Prior knowledge:
Layout (H helix, E strand, L loop, with lengths): L7 H11 L2 H7 L7 H19 L3 H7 L2 E3 L2 E3 L4 H10 L18 H6 L1 H7 L1 H20 L2 H13 L2 E6 L15 E4 L5 E11 L8 E8 L12 E6 L1 E3 L5 E4 L2 E6 L10 E14 L5 H37 L23 H33 L3 H37 L10 H9 L8 H14 L4 H16 L7 H25 L4 H35 L5 H18 L3 H9 L3 H4 L11
Parallel strand pairs: 3-6
Antiparallel strand pairs: 1-2, 4-5, 5-11, 6-7, 7-11, 8-9, 10-11
Helix pairs in contact: 1-11, 3-7, 7-8, 7-10, 8-9, 8-10, 10-11, 10-12, 10-13, 11-12, 11-17, 11-18, 12-13, 12-14, 12-15, 12-17, 14-17, 15-16, 16-17, 17-18, 17-19
Amino acid sequence: MENYKATQRDTLFVTQELLNMEAHYQDLGFEDATDDLIRAIYGEAAKFAENVLAPLNQVGDDEGCTINDGVVTTPTGFKEAYRQYVDGGWPSMAHPVEFGGQGLPYSLATTMAEWFSGANHSWAMYPGLSQGCMETLKANGTPEQQEIYLTKLIEGSWTGTMCLTEPHCGSDLGMLKCRAEPTEDGSYKLSGTKIFISAGEHDMSDNIIHLVLARLPDAPAGTKGISLFLVPKFNVDGQGNIGDRNTVKCGSLEHKMGIKGSATCVMNFDEANGFLVGEPNRGLACMFTFMNIARIGTGMEGLSATEAAYQGALAYAKDRLQFRSMTGKKNPEGPADPIIVHPDVRRMLLTQKSLAEGKRAMAVYCMKMVDTTLYSEDEEAKKLAEAKLALLTPIVKAFLTETAQEATSYGMQIYGGHGYIKEWGMEQLARDTRICTMYEGTTGIQAIDLLARKIIGSNGELLKVFATEIKTYCADLRGQSQFNAWANSIDSHVDEWIQISTDIAQLAKTNPDEIGAASVDYLMYAGYITVGYFWLQMAVTAQQKLDEGTSETDFYRAKLMTAKFYFDRMLSRTRSLVSAINSGSENLMQMEEALFSAGK
């Protein structure tokens, strides 16, 4: 969106006032990550998002990417923007100094990814994929691979991809066929086709490093026989110098509904030179480093779109004159009142606002947990953070992106017919955001991961860890009458969440379909409760600031009013979700396949 504004003030509220990230950084040994430094970095990131990326957003949609004999050209300005991104040191922020990084915390760098994506979703995907590639090589690469490839990725002169999906298998990776043949020198020759590869080929970096899942000749069937390989676009010698072109080529670009400035490629590997990353047949475990980061990143894209839709809709609602307020003229000098006076427009705006701000708090909280897993020397603290992340990652990915569909739809709706017209940017935002519920594991897959693997698979222990945190916080508020009703509501929802989990697990013992039938409604239910927990905290923090006599009265009053809207209108959505969950699997599974076509 060309008029996009980075949410510096609200992000500072979440990071500095709600989650006390400055103290968090000091505890982890990041002494340089002071409030002054954070604000300075945020300021520069906001300028880059607003002044460089946002003006290219519609350009990317209009032009898209082009391909000529396997060579992909990105839209006008994308390459130059990436050069500014590299020159600004953005790729290296959260990476170790010994590999050329700046040694700053993961969460500090990732928080601003919201702004880059909100300004230009398509462009932000190019450096976004590289981050997961870097983390995978940091965790699993050999010293040689780190010295040659990781340093260039951190520098930003090279970018990275994740190559999983094949034409015959989407998320069912046990079916993949891409093969890797060992050679005498210890490298491998990879052959096969991967599809839907974001940033698989482009002109923005000097080299592209593909992390590819493939099978060795003697690999067992299924997911237990998958290995991970590093395959460069250009071959690289032992000193890191680029050589000849490797035999990996973009066969075509996908014709997509949105994110047209992002190159989504069909990649053909024809005995391409590759190198094993990690242990043989342990590729999926290695790739999960990449996939979990990508899932949180995709959730951030949902947050970005929700915020961008709200900004566009709010500006329009204040300016567009239509009809008179039912309670009397609010713009007596004009022919009509601005549409923001109408209750239904406010319903849509407050839905967007409450989701954007609640999801931001949830996302940054998860980043804080990632920091702890990466940097803390306290093993108990790390285990606790890992447990919370295991539970929350599928919720972040799916809930933040599913609710973004509603938010971007409201963005169009508030504009009325103009929202359906390209020049306003709302329909592009809706198109660009639609993919977020699908890639990096669909909502259904995230829901099964949450309910089957994380909840039932841990016998409810992962839920108990997070539930204990929430219930403890609610108990601590008992003396604050202003927040009793909201705290009691969240507390009782958590009790219900635990009971529903137990009930589904019991039913699944005799009918496993009960898990799949309940899973998506269960995930969305969990999402509304979790965001409600963060809105409770934000309301308490806002009231504290008002009690202290802050000069930003309007900012904190708006927080309290938005919290009230969330508890009155958004949290109540859990009631219909519980009803759907309790209805069971029979209404889904009883119909024979033939009856789906009855009457056609």
